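User: Fold this, then the next.

Assistant: Folding the first:
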Amino acid sequence: MAVDERSVTNLLRPGRNRIAVQVHSPGHSHFAHVHRGACGLIGWLEVDGTTVLTTGPHWKVRRDRSWSDRVERVSIYGTGVEDRDLRLEEDWVEADASDWEAARVVQGAEGPVWQRLRPRATALPLEDVLPLGKPWQVRAGRTLAFSEDPHSDLRKAFSSSAPGPAPALLPAGTSAIWVFDLGESRACLGGVELTAAGGERLLISYAEKLRDGELLLPDPETYCRMRPTDRFTLRQGRQVVEGFTPRGARYLLFALEGGGVAPAPKFHARLPVTPVVERPLPPLGPELQGVAEICRRTTLNCLQDGFVDGVWRESSLWLGDAVAQDWALRGISDDPRPLLFAIDMAAEGADAEGLLPSALPGEVPAYAVTDYNFSWVELLSGCATHPGIDEPEAVWQRHWGTLTRMLERMASFRGADGLLRNPPGRRLFLDWSPMNRVEPNLTLNLRYLHALRLAAEMAGRVGRTADWAEDAGELARVLQGHRAPDGWRESPGGEAASQLGLALLILTGVVEGAEAEGLADRIVARSLDLRDGPVEGQPALASPFMHHYLFLALQRLGRRDAIRAIIAARWGRWVREGRVTTPENWSIDFPDGSACHGFSAHPLGWL
């Protein structure tokens, strides 16, 4: 649990000051926060290193009744919908707090709920306010009956309205929708200053992409259950309206119910930005320069408290995704804090058996992914080559117990044949690719082999005794059972090895020499064939994310020209299509497919 530390010197004035803090929690668990039935605030004020003020029973609190406490989740990945009646809003900053209740102390500062409290490990985001000028689209229509689901109301209002100018006077019974294009998918918070008669409702919503030229509003009946629409009931007069929680989007929507007055709206967006000290990229050709730009934009947009996979629907720190995201960020910055943050958070989330969480900081059992444990080993090992880490051994020593316990637990899942089987209740790997997942799985065991060898190298550097090198040698030997007379198989007797499986055979040294070069030729040919679906006689295509491992394998063979050729062909296609950020897969046709996914931006590091 991280605490923000910031200077308030410029906010204080001589004499008596009042400090007020607004806290909002919808009460929902989601991928970045596990709700444990209690919400709280802890804070303190330091002056010249001395604590002069702390939270406690002398603080006053008041429930803000303008916020509804009965709201849907935005999605399974994110926080709650916000439903607020501004007619009940109070000026809580300047209010007379004499009749407010005394704060209830749930636990003192030394209580167990605060034991893991520590200063923020990553840079504190800054926030810009962007005035929104000309709308991308304006729509007008009649006012529809509202329900308990603001997002459903928005979808109905959008489909029943038509493009056209919004009237200066918005009569009762009519409504208007303004849509703004930010130009790229990013974290944002929509807001507006407007005039109301009182009682009108305003919906602020978020979308990421178009389909056939039309704005695609998420359908909560599909995969990610997205409802990114907040509702506000307006008070009389001129007012500023904006939500509490930043969302992720490229398109901002404002749907206003008419009240018989001229709303004269002035729209804006708050844009959180995590500061990064960048270094310039080397000179690149025009196409690769374009790839570098969309990868850079994606990498920075998917950097918040730490790495998040995508700003659109998830905004979750996935342990496995951090491998590719760290590679991208180190291409432009020496800042190691997001990498170290991911390493530390995963270690803190280890379960009683030693297995690591997949989504940080809270575990999500439905998405417990086995090979993300191996990603953590890769992140640890990557400290040795990170330009901002001077003593990787210190990081390894700090987490040696976690590393040892996790690998010991993994060893217990090896069968009599020496091959790893997936622990019950866990996924082998999480990736948008058509590759085979039958066990004992070649790709899963090769990820395990790679982790064992990296762990053995770290043990040698810090002078620790471990059996990981011997375990890796035995695993490499038994993996030969996946080799058939006509080639490698994802499972013994099963389908042909995927592109990712072939790459891991090279990366782990299971195949070498002419055989490795032959497999590399097949890998390169499949990536340069721009057909995304299954191709007869070719291995299953790896996702953009897993191409990072393809590139590692090609680098092992010194084939950097092939890496650049693949980047120019596949990522260059996105540039030619006019994309401004990297999508999560070669095709994102499914309704909530993200157009800005951090793990797909790893070519930034390769370029």
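Now the next one, as you asked:
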Amino acid sequence: MTAELVRGQNHTLPQTRLEIRVSAGSPVVAGATLGDERGTVRGAEWIAHPASHRVPGLEVSRQAAADHRLAVDLDALPGEVHRVTVVLALPVGAGRPVSFGAVAAPFVAVTGLDGTEIATFTLTGLDTESAVSALELYRRQGAWKVRAVGQGYAAGLAGLFADQGVAEAAETAAAIQEAVASGLARSVTPPPRTTEGERVRHPAGPAAAGAQAPAPPVPEAQPAEPLGNPASARTEAPGGGPIDYAHPRRQTSAPPPPPPTAPPAAPGQPARPVAGDATGWSMDERLYNQIWGMFEDLARAVAAYRSAVDFAESRMDQELDRALSDPRNRIGGAGDRAREAARAKRDELTGRAREALERDLAQLAAESAVVEPALPAAYAGWDNPVWHAYRVPMEIPMALRLGDLRLGEAPDLRIPLLVRLPLERGIWIDSGRTASEAAASTTGDQLRGLAVETAVTLAARLLAVYPAGEFSVHVVDPAGSAAGQLSPLVGSGVLAGPPAAGAEGVASVLAHLTRRVDLVQMAIRAGAADALPPDLDTGEHLLIVNDFPHGFDDRAVTQLRYLADEGPSVGVHLLMVADREDARAYGPVLDPLWRSLLRITPVADDHLADPWVGHAWTYEPLRTPQGSRVLEQVLALVAEARRGGRR
């Protein structure tokens, strides 16, 4: 029976190999410290955190996430350790919550390796604290117990570590937050929650994905800003005006549930999937929420499978250690029989876990087969027939598809990667060499060419989903190295001007967009939208920068960082095509720039992480079908609509 602890209460642990699961309403950093008999942490080597995620007997997550699983083997801890303290902290950065009082109360569960809950604790009553000692496992008279702590620290991790006796508390806390910031740059931004915005779960579908290792419930949360969302600084000008960049259909009240569109399934049969099977105010919103639900279902199903496999392996190791510790089993056939029995049990457990995963994958595949053909153009791949019936829209959609995501356990199941519109952070298409198999089989010149092609197709999608004249694209190509790949944009006439070349061209475009950001920000702060110059285009703007940092001096680099930081809040967005190694000469001055951008790649690469369990997902960019002219046809329609709007 699960012990539901309150602050200060303890409970005996029946085993020494455990998992500690954390669920929060927004991404948090999860770590653990090892303490001696007095609870003192003797050094940084006794702290498990994202930059050093393993210490003897303990492993934690490598990044901030809404859900965590910490692995604990109390028998493997150093003999001097008498206490393990689980710590949670909020990642620092613009647009992120600064205290636990602003987010949902975290929920912590201590479980066995099979997912059985031993003790749970909900950390209520937190206010200004940004770090908290959630619970501690401690040794008393040879037995291990768990105690609910819930001690918060307004001074953050530095204050928590100082309280535990860490000599260089501030330096250690800063190093952890730096590692977390690098990890957050990999994370896919989750959609904001609504009070009733949960996906409708079918009883026999992916909701059963956690059967092997069920996730603890997430406490009710108020709607929160998405992770890394610079739009939190967006302010509508008093009285409206031409500079309101808030999405017109982003509602603050709970959306209605989806209408019943399919008869219930027969008893014992999985529910039939339906496109738009999620809450929302419109079909676009319901499809958006459904895709995110599929994304989360797949993440949790695979997490449950991996947890079950890890449990089976660790159980086999324990049984082998037990059997072979007896000298009598080291001779004759007893040892062989023990090995065979342990491996058979491992295979049985893994087989059952695989069967559960296959059932969930089959349900998700069936859902994907129904959802994909129903997607609107903004959510659809280039091979979807919806593009052949394309017409320039009258309003922007909720989101845009950037590519597809998949996991190794389900290579044929692809989840669309959707980002909200207007864009809330810039995008970096990494043209450098990565460790992926696809990159290894591609030359450096091919990677650079594919990176520009990816930027062109992404710019085309953005132009296609905005009403005519409400989105402008500027290109900076200092050396003119991407003339061939840019020809669809140049030839169709959809660019705001010819691609800028040379240092002078770079300076001119950056000055123009920087002036626009300055003027709109001043108008918003002063409540004087009508005072903007008549020649100022208040629509959305995208700046494509190719071959950075070629053609950029220090002033241009400073302006680029300014546009990346301040531009999204007033409708100026950045799309970088660059190899980070080429910019090493600038040193750490550009690190905040890279971290502020969503990194994607021109070939398949497993660098993006989900916000729930932190899987490394393989990202695949969208490509037009071989021989298809869909891109040119769409751009021609966009250009025609823009010319018609200027008449």
